[in-house]
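Rotation project, supervised by the postdoc (A.L.). Task for the rotation student: set up a whole-complex structure prediction and record inputs and outputs verbatim in this book. Inputs entered:
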Amino acid sequence: MPDLQPGINNGQPVIIVGAGHSGVAVAAGLRTRGWVGGILLLDGEKETPYERPPLSKELLKSGAPDESTVLRKEKFYQDKRIERLAGITAEAIDRQSRTVVLSDGSRRGYDRLVVATGSRARPLTVPGSGLPGVHALRTREDALDLKRALVAGTRVAIIGAGYIGLEVAAAAAARGCKVTVLELQDRVMSRVTSEPVSRFFEQLHEQNGIRFVFGAAVTAIEGQRRAERVVTADGTVHPADVVLAGIGVLPNQEVATEAGLECRDGILVDGEGRTSDSAIYATGDVTRFASPVDGTSQRLECIQNAQAQADRVAAHITGQQPAEPEIPWFWTVQHGVRLQTAGVRHPDDDVIVRGTPAVGKFAVIYLRDGRLAAVDTVAGLADFRPAKKLIAAGALIDPALAADPRIPLTDTIPNDPSLTDADLVSARI
Amino acid sequence: MSNNKLTVVDREGKSRDLEWEPDQTLMEALRDNDLPVLASCGGTASCATCHVFLADEVFDTLGERSEDEIELLVEAEGYRECGSRLSCQLDFTKDLDGVTVTLAPEE
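Outputs recorded:
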């Protein structure tokens, strides 16, 4: 095998395994950056690659069309000479000969391989998990199945009060279902946000008729031919016609593991998206990498990461400089109220509430060693962009000033003459 | 419906003409023609990485901006009270045939 030089095409295509947000972004990014060689995009799904965030939001609304929002128009792939193989996955990677074995039995050689296989919904493992009526939500097909099941009057039990569970709870309630959310922790979205935000959203859901059961460990799903009830560890029985599990995701790393690439709950990649094989990259939900903020090993399941890693890989393959990545950010919409987060909060960060949750619009900022680490904005985006810049700059924040929502976030940097490093100055915009 | 003509002034000040197809938002027309528009939220007025400037007289003919769009734009680099839009919020309309769009600075 010839040595790989950045920007040099040895005649074989770049093969991208997976056509979710990240895989498509790699393909598009390669063309934007001038890659003239072949691009082969293996898409395990049949239809034109689509946006996933709307699947648990807009798509589930009453009267919303079943069509999904495509990432790029079908014509884009032809125009950009991106060969998309629909319904085809990678069965195996032969690293020695730089060949991928496809699910149709054919083999294709690659110059560089990008594994962008994403993640799948973590399956329930309790007895009865396989009964009809038990749903997960990851693909458009899942979303349409669920939508058909959410008929007015249906009793819906949702297992897990994370983004997916709560978005579906809101959609189901709006469609006239009777919704119960079963959550093991003592509040909603406990992994991703602080108590004030959790409490606000709990109230919002309760006002819309949704019932929460906290500390609920599901032990079984029971029913004759289909799901009829969910049983929790304390013996409580929750009648349900439809069950949705929203209990996280698992990385689709099997093809990489079997090829001997280093994986540990995710394919391990460096800052350029390279795996332990220099001809193979990985991007998006399937990867695990060291946080540029504090070096901790993480998987980041978000569009921002899917896109930023894709750009880094496209840049590395073409021998160019990547764009400065955005700060990780996330959003969810529940009952029409948007929660948008920038940065990754730690449970022991200092929590400062800006505004009054009772009025329905506020923000919460998270300080780590006095520096802005993350922000949650609820029903308003005024603090979102300033916070992204301040997080990127590692800006110190005066907690007393920041507690006053009338003071713009950029004016909450303490007036301390010793704080004159370039980062702080640039953060003052 | 026929395509619109669109002139884009990029961040280096270079002009380029392109076709804006009826089923595209302005953001999609820019992005799908390889202009450096990140559009990381996929067109949901969440990220403001598709910020553009339009001439006053064009801006005035457009619909009102949503509260989210305004809040994001106000904090954006180079914000213009009259002229700044998120291109993902602008659907194709024949009224915008021949329009000139300037990409806002990157943050």
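Student's summary: The beta strands of chain B are 4-9, 15-20, 51-54, 84-86, 99-103.
Supervisor addendum: The radius of gyration of chain B is 12 Å.
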